[in-house]
Amino acid sequence: xxxxxRAVITGNQxxxxxxxxxxxxxxxxxxxxxxxxxxxxxxSRPRKRAVGAGAKHQLVFVDRLLATLVHLRHGxxxxxxxxxxxxxxxxxxxxxxxxRPLLAxxxxxxxxxxxxxxxxxxxxxxxxxxxxxxxxxTEIRVRRPAAGHTGRGKFLSGKxxxxxxxxxxxxxxxGRLLFCSPAEPASCADITHARKLGLVWxxxxxxxxxxxxxxxxxxxxxxRAGGW
Length: 228
What we know:
Layout: H1 3-11, H2 13-16, H3 20-44, H4 61-74, H5 78-85, H6 89-106, E1 108-111, E2 114-116, H7 119-129, E3 133-141, E4 164-172, E5 177-180, E6 184-185, H8 190-197, H9 199-205
C-alpha cells in the first residue's frame, strides 16, 4: 500500500472508526507487542536459516492494523480486504487473527482514567456512571466450509440464510464501541451467545438500572439490566 493510500484511509474516520490520533496511539501501544510476539514465534521454530532470513512481510504493522479496523467496522470479507491491500487472502486472515487479540488486551479507553478490557468492566462502568448501553449481535459473512467438512452446517445463519460468524457488540447510547466479543458460528442464538459470555448473570447481579422497552425475545429476561 502506498503512503498516499494509507494516509487517505487513516484520515477518514468513516473507514476505520478511530481518529488519526487514536490510530497513532494504537500503533505506539501494540505495535511493539506484535513485533515481539512475531520474533518469539520465529525463534521457537526449528530452523535451518537464521531468524530474519527469507521472504519479508507484505504488510507493515500499520497496514495490518488498518485492515483489522476496517474488518471490525464494516464486516468486510477477507477476500475484499486482500484485493484492497494487494495481498493474498491468507495474509489477511493471519493478520486479523494476530491483531484482534492485541486490541482486546488493550481494551477500550472511554475516559483518560478509564479503560475497559472485559464485559464485566463494561457492565460495572455503565452501572456506576448511570449510562445507557446498547447490545446486539452482528453477523459477518464467511466462506462456506468445504463439502464433507465436520460441522459444515454450524456456520449457516437461520436468519440471513448465509454462512457467517457472529459477535456480540456493546455500545453506549452515543454508539461508542465498548466491547466486541469473540466470534461464534452464526447458528448460535443471541441468547445462547449472551449466556456463554456470562452477560445474563452479569446483568442479574450488577447494578440496578431501568431497562428500555423492547420486543419480547424468547428466553431473554433481563432482571437487573441497565439500559439494555
